[in-house]
Amino acid sequence: MIIHIDMDSFYASVEVREHPELARQPVAVGGSATGRGVVAAANYEARKFGVRSAMPMTMALRHCPQLVCLPVNMPLYVEVSKQIHQIFNRYTSEIEPLSLDEAFLDVRASEKLFGSATSIARQIKQAIQNECGLIASAGVAPNKFVAKIASDIDKPDGYVVVEAEHMQDFLDPLPISRIWGVGKVTEAKLHQLGFRTIHDIRVQPVESLVQRFGKWGEHIHRLANGLDKREVVPDARAKSISAETTFAEDISNEDALLANLMQLTEQVAARCRHHGFEGKTVNLKMRYHDFRTLTRSKTLTMPTNQTEQIWQTAKQLLLKQSRTQPDPVRLLGVGVSGFRGETVQQGDLFAENDVLSPDAGAASENRYVELDRISDEINQRFGKAKIHRGRARN
Amino acid sequence: MKFQIQREDLLIPLQKIIGAVEKRQTMPALSNILIKADKDKISLTATDLEIELVTTLNMVADEAGDTTLPARKLLDICKALPEESSISITVDSNKAMIKSGRSRFSLSTLPAEDFPSLDSINTVAEFELPQTTLKELIDKTSFAMALQDVRYYLNGLLLEVSTGLIRAVATDGHRLAYCEKQADCDLAEIKQVIVPRKGIQELVRLLEDSEEPLKIFLGSNHIRIEVGNIRFTSKLIDGRFPDYNRVIPEDGKNRIIADRENLRQALVRASILSNEKYRGIRLVVEGDILLLQAQNPDQEEADVEVEVNYTGDTLEIGFNVNYMLDVLNVTDASTVQSTLRDSNSSCLMTYPDHPDCKYVIMPMRL
Q: Which residue, among A89, A24, A83, A12, has the nearest Cα to A53 in the 3D structure?
């Protein structure tokens, strides 16, 4: 079984834990209201007033004038997230973190040692509450797709187990928006076709979905049938690191695509740096409005995790593709693969900025390394807010 | 076309030129060799369009003419015939008849007109050099050439000719090999050419440790070398070789002087337990002891000590052990000197007895 653990209003809950006087008060973490700050996270008290993530702080205050606004304290959340991961680690090493507050755990190999998956999920929830003073929601199911829905469906403090034999009963009545990758636009499209629940998709012949949506049609049909073969991949063992985004509206404007590509590239490069990975291949993924999906890749001379290098390569791939096929794009993704093994780094005689001697060439490339270091630092402090600003722009 | 020839007179030249024939071909004619029979000589040509090897046999043909024959098959037939047997080759329309003793072979031919040939190369400079000088330049450096690097200009050997001096430089970006020799050449300006890897490999097979001179012709896009009865021509890599002077370090303050053979054997011993893929080895030098440490992914470890003559601070540095062994393997010098600046900077290896070679190795972080 797979467990999905999702912390309830993570940043806000950590702040409330640090400031016990704030308990039962509406709290939002994010940028300042005097600037153009947005809400990075809000606790459930604040949500009752309609405060949502990504909402400008000024608007949040209009919804809820007594809202307590706190600045983002990223180093603290990172610290707490590490603690939570240590709890996961007691039960399994098969942990795939999705973000600071969310992870998949594959406990199939641990059940003999620690009891059933349902019991492990309960123990983890309990340990997070006892040791970190925080509430997590847990979903337990035979695969990632269903586990993620399960953890979300009974939030906050959720605990939902979906056994294999009840999976279809669980999925069937759910609205299609529960399917990964179904956003507002796709939802509307599916509604037009008369699909409202997962059941509606499941009973469709797969051919008709393929005809309309291509390969993606086959994919959602499989999910609707509770079939998801994706493995839990611990980041440390990942063969590639990637990020993708489905747009609220299809985009054909090249500048808009590039702006999104830049954001994705920053995320991917920062994750590579975080894990100390350097990849040799840059991959671009594009899904067009008609669900045609293609990938393009380019291999570099030397492995890298510099944002600038990955960006230049990804940009080239995108421009080449968008000029041959300037159709509206619904999904854009970028990834890095072909990681250099272990931590052995062979010095390069001609690299302006050699891996081994950062002082060798005070030349141009050093600026990018410095830029990456600073941007990683900023990200650590304002990480989520930044991601939200990006989404808000769409 | 018709001629008689003794097995060895055909087999040995064939073996010298066969390397130019690629196993996989884009043009059918390229898997053949061109045979041209004139009044008083017969020439054999093999090419892959990048390099061309022509060998000329001074002999009289019964009947002049030209054709192309499947190279490998012809070679295999010659090899399989008894020593010192006599072979007769007769070409008629599109078949060649090869007879020797009681064996007969009928080979298919392709017209000689279809065979690409590189006759004129626009020579801009020419000079002579003892065979052994060119052989040594290549032997001491070619191991460092890159293999299929995207920096295509590294996939070959740089030959730099100036007045009285010829230099060979090869690098794969991780290490560099440099060798210079006096030469009887007088060029108006320094001339640099990059000979592709395959050309170097074929060329070195033709060279012997002899003082016999060979002739070098430099063209704008080709290099041609005439050695004995063989003419070697190679296209040049059209690119700029990196400025090697920039990466050969000045004398550093930490200097290890070691007996070459002792050091080589110690490295071989320690390398048994180095990571098979990355070949990393740690060097720790303190006082007059050089400690070599290797560790593999199974956490097995090797510690090997070598006595050296060291001047400098205590230092720890990692290298790909193969890069060091490559340098130690191409010489018979008795002592080797390694000069280091610090753990992150390149190492300069030289032989005090043979100051004409320099080797630079970048460290690896272990």
A: A12
User: How close B354 gets to chain A, by Cα (Å)?
Assistant: 24
Give chain A's end-to-end CA distance (angstroms, integer): 36
**pLDDT for A234-258, tens place per residue?**
766 677 888 888 887 888 888 889 8
Kindly report the length of chain A.
Answer: 394
Contact B288, B336 (CB under 8 A): no
Contact in structure between A29 and A12 (CB atoms under 8 Å): yes
Which tens digit of pLDDT belongs to each residue from A342-363? Answer: 445 788 888 754 444 444 333 4
Q: Which residues from B are below 8 Å from A350, CB to CB?
A: 173, 242, 247
- Cβ distance A344 to B346 less than 8 Å, yes or no, reads no
A179-194 b/e with 16+ CB inside 10 Å = b? Answer: beebbeebbeebeeee
Q: What distance lies between CA B201 and its chain's CA centroid?
A: 3
Q: How far apart are CA A139 and CA A102, in angstroms?
A: 11
Angstroms from B178 CA to nearest CA on chain A? 14
Q: Which tokens sit at A332?
A: 């854009």
Global confidence as pTM: 0.58
H or E element in which residue A58 lies: helix A57-63
Q: Is B270 exposed, middle or buried (CB count within 10 Å of its CB: 0-12, 13-18, 19+)?
A: buried
Phi, psi of A220 (to 5 degrees): -70, -30
Q: Which residues of chain B approach chain A closer than 8 Å at the C-beta?
A: 149-151, 171, 173-176, 242, 247, 275, 277-278, 280, 297, 320, 344-346, 360, 362-366
